[in-house]
Design brief:
single chain, 11 helices, CAP10, O-Glucosyltr/Glycosyltrsf_90, Glycosyl transferase family 90
């Protein structure tokens, strides 16, 4: 396939995907003009330029097909917030990576750069503020005393760091945080932590099997019957895990982000009120788990406050908030 035909195909895919994602909102959608630019610069950054009834989308060309899929999947929320802001003229750059890639974007879903304005992420958008999880929690409504004490964590191997070698101590700072969690779990009674699939390009599943790190995936709804849950960064923040566990009424033990990654609502999230904080190196993991089990009344209060917090982040309220932030920054 020639470069021209490939670029034409990619432009059509991006425009079609964005229109499909925005169709339920009945926007007066501007004409989408997608431009695939030469390779270079910041490949996960996308320029959005609105001039009246035209919205230009500037994407950097990259040989990796995954990147184009990754980019187009995460564009629609930014465009939705822009249209809700009411701005007829605007030009800005958005980040479509998880947040760990180099960027010069004005807006992102996750970042450790305080100059970047964070907005509600693509999973929050796709799941309409996790409304289905809220309904499921209401329909199930398992009381605190009827929930399980055992703590289960499951996730991909996403994250910066190394795999362990046989006999490697779990506190080795070179290890990926999720790997360290799995190793620490072997020493903490009632903690089952495992990786259900490799999310790392150089870590095949059989390598995880040989190291004893793999566990079967767990249906999301099973956390509805748990008192506790753990949240720990992958490449950056977890996006879906934290809010879902809060919606399910779990008392979340949240491992601090080793690199300071944040999402749009983190300044409203308070330790010891909405979750139990764990140090980034997890040196206090066992201690905090013991505390949570020793003081069930206090843990249930944290779980209840966390659930109320998650419920306050509705799709409608956070869309308005995002639109206001865009208008403030660009208006």
């Amino acid at each position: 396939m020639t470069h021209y035909l490939r670029h034409l195909r990619d432009r059509l895919r991006v425009a079609s995907y964005v229109r499909r994602q925005l169709r339920p909102f009945n926007h007066a959608l501007p004409r989408l003009a997608v431009d695939i630019r030469p390779q270079g610069g910041y490949p996960y950054d996308v320029e959005l330029r609105r001039t009246g009834d035209v919205l230009a989308i500037g994407i950097t060309f990259h040989d990796r097909l995954l990147l184009h899929w990754h980019v187009r999947r995460r564009l629609a929320p930014y465009i939705h917030y822009l249209l809700e802001s009411g701005l007829e003229s605007a030009c800005f750059t958005v980040a479509t990576s998880d947040g760990q890639e180099p960027t010069q974007a004005d807006f992102a879903y996750s970042s450790n750069d305080p100059s970047v304005q964070l907005l509600p992420d693509a999973f929050f958008f796709d799941h309409r503020g996790f409304a289905a999880d809220l309904r499921l929690a209401d329909e199930t409504a398992i009381s605190w005393n009827d929930r399980r004490d055992a703590i289960v964590w499951r996730g991909g191997s996403n994250g910066i760091g190394a795999l362990p070698w046989p006999g490697s101590p779990p506190d080795n700072p070179r290890l990926a945080p999720r790997v360290s969690l799995c190793l620490l779990a072997r020493e903490i009674e009632g903690l089952d932590a495992g990786i259900y699939e490799s999310g790392h390009p150089f870590w095949p599943n059989d390598a995880l099997d040989r190291l004893g790190l793999r566990r079967p995936a767990r249906p999301e709804a099973e956390w509805l019957g748990d008192k506790f849950a753990i949240d720990i960064d992958g490449w950056t923040n977890t996006w879906t895990n934290l809010l879902r566990r809060l919606h399910y009424g779990c008392c979340v033990l949240k491992v601090e982000s080793a690199f300071g990654y944040r999402q749009w609502y983190y300044d409203r999230l308070q330790p010891w009120q909405h979750y139990i904080p764990i140090r980034a190196d997890m040196a206090d993991l066992g201690e905090k788990i013991d505390w949570a089990r020793t003081y069930p009344t206090r843990s249930s209060e944290v779980a209840r406050a966390g659930q109320e917090f998650a419920r306050s982040l509705t799709f409608e309220s956070e869309t308005r908030w995002a639109a206001e932030k865009i208008a403030q920054r660009l208006g």
